[in-house]
Amino acid sequence: MSDQFATTAPDEAMALALRRIADSEAAGRGSEMAGLGFNQVVVNMGPQHPSTHGVLRLVVTLDGELVKDVIPVIGYLHRGKEKIAEKRTYYQYIPIVDRTEYVAGMNCEWGYVRTVEKLAGIEPTRRAEFIRVIMAELNRIASHQVGVGTFTADLAPLGTAMVFYAFRHREKILDLLEAASGARMMFNYFRFGGVRYDLPDGWVETCRELMLQVPAWCREYEALVNDNAVFLQRCLGKGVMTQDDVADYAITGPNARASGVAHDLRRTRPYSVYPELDFEVCLGRHGDVYDRYQVRVDEIRESAKIVLQCLDMLPAGPVQLGTLRAPYVVTPPPGACYTAQENPRGEFGTYIVSDGSRYPYRLKYRDPCFVNLQIFPKLLRGNKIADAVAISGSMDLVLGGIDR
Amino acid sequence: MALPAIGSAGLALDDVAARLAAALPSDLSDLRVQEPDTVVAVVAPAVLHDVALRLRGLEGLAYESCNFVAAVDLGDGFEAVYHLYSFAANSYLELHVAVPRAKPVLDTVSDVWPAADWHEREAFDMMGIRFEGHPDPRRILLPDDWVGHPLRKDYVDSIENHPNV
Q1: Residues of B in contact with A250 (CB under 8 A)
Q2: Backbone phi, then psi, for A175, in 5-degree steps?
Q3: Which residue in A181, A201, A207, A302 is a FRET match for A331, CA 20 to 30 A apart?
Q4: Following DSSP, what letter does each residue of A41-56 receive, concatenated?
């Protein structure tokens, strides 16, 4: 069977899917796909598919409507960012990091800048720390709005209505980020020891006004879908991730918290000024699609709470260390270091090896989406193909981070 | 089965290092503490899989998650860096494994930590380290027909390396 296929499509993932069917048939009953060859069909989903949220490709083996096997294929958005890092100075690399998890650029920049600061022993100013937390949490809200909005569109009880509710609110947050940094999504805002610009006049008041509306936004989202029978049928008990799965597959972020694992780096390994702030770690209990959705909506509320506190506590002072030219040249001493932080999708870390020059010797991302995607075959197996779309939507993947 | 609560072991980083040194005295060398959250150790390639199994099952201090695997080109050889996380200790363990350039082969640990699977594929894709016993040893980010391993320091980019472009 696989030979026959090889002549029509020289594609290793497809060939692998067919080989697995052939192997399980050869193995006889007892193998997980055995005895079902009659109804089996291999479907290629993506890389251009509206519900894969980017250029994710899934080679799905179906038995009737049931998913028997999934082979994720990634790399369609690979831009060689780890290689690029070796050819640029630490400073020149900051805008590239934005493009990693492009829905949460502020958080990614922060992750990279913190690692370099730790390597080079730079301590950011206190005002900058607060501005960083504000930006990261605003971006977390915007990112969760994308996640929740597109997820409900995948389920389709409401068509795309929810997307527009979420995106309308997200646009207001992007306006704030643009006013501070100059860009809607590709910010290039963080600098070693601080941030690029101080907040413009009137920004704090506008931001506070907007954050006070956030609980009402969340109520609006919940009123739209939480009591919807179709929505609940498609969410409750679907795609359950146990705590063992969380450990095995190193799942982090809202996906882990939905399974009741209180892993939130802002609390478990606090950084920046998070220890001074009051917020809850939002947990789910069942680890199903519904909990993953609800945890994200709850986190939007908590992030707004954090931003409001930071606006009240915001100290005066410089937002950068020393003169304007100071942070341009950074030469950390030889060594290696990994720092991680809580991105909207989980633990985002950068491992940097320095040889003492102005260029990173080696940079490796630990991207939450890349790690979270690995559990897909296990999670989707045995579900209906329509639920597979719901489950993958609930994982909230960003392909920029997966492919790097 | 529920995971241990995060940080429930209540151990300081030095204590974690001491426990590890006591539990695997001959296999973890150059054990040191890197503030604020990491214990670093060197492991011989031959015992890697065995060490992985024992770390995963360590009583009261199990390293349940493999956070990532990074491959580094050090010039005369490669280094694989395994980054592990323990929920009970709430800290990382970084294992450095030397890989010879002439024969870049390691045992897979993807059977111990499923999360290591794709990181090992990436290490093969980018650095050309092969993992013995890996269930699906294909390239992951680059096209299947790519030639060479781009993150090696001696890699030379050429149109010959990507025949379909």
Answers
A1: 65-68, 85, 113, 115
A2: -60, -45
A3: A181
A4: EEEEE-SSBGGGTBS-
Distance of CA B44 to the CA centre of its chain: 12
Q: How far apart are CA A109 and CA A98, in angstroms?
A: 6
B85 touches chain A (CB under 8 A): yes
Domains of chain B as residue ranges with CATH: 13-152 (3.30.460.80)
Burial of A162 (0-12, 13-18, 19+ CB in 10 A): buried
Give the pLDDT of chain B (165 residues) as one tens digit per residue.
577 778 777 778 888 888 888 888 788 888 888 878 888 999 999 999 999 998 888 888 888 899 999 999 998 899 999 999 988 888 899 999 999 988 899 999 999 999 999 999 999 999 999 998 998 888 888 888 788 898 988 888 777 777 665
Size (chain A), residues: 404
The domains found in chain A, sorted by start residue, are 2-73 (no CATH), 81-403 (1.10.645.10)
Chain A positions touching B73 (Cβ under 8 A) are 362
Which secondary structure element, helix H or strand E, spans residue A275, and what is its range?
Answer: none
Q: Is residue A202 classed exposed, middle or buried when 0-12, 13-18 and 19+ CB atoms within 10 A define those classes?
A: exposed
Tokens of A295: 């945890």
For residue A383, is it left (φ>0), alpha (ψ between -120 and 50) or beta?
Answer: beta
Cβ of A347 and B67 within 8 Å? Answer: yes
Measure the CA–CA gap between A158 and A199, rounded to whole angstroms: 39
Q: How far is CA A109 from CA A96, A190, A196, A225, A351, in A?
A: 9, 6, 12, 33, 14
Among the partner residues A261, A373, A404, nearest to B3 by beta-carbon distance: A261
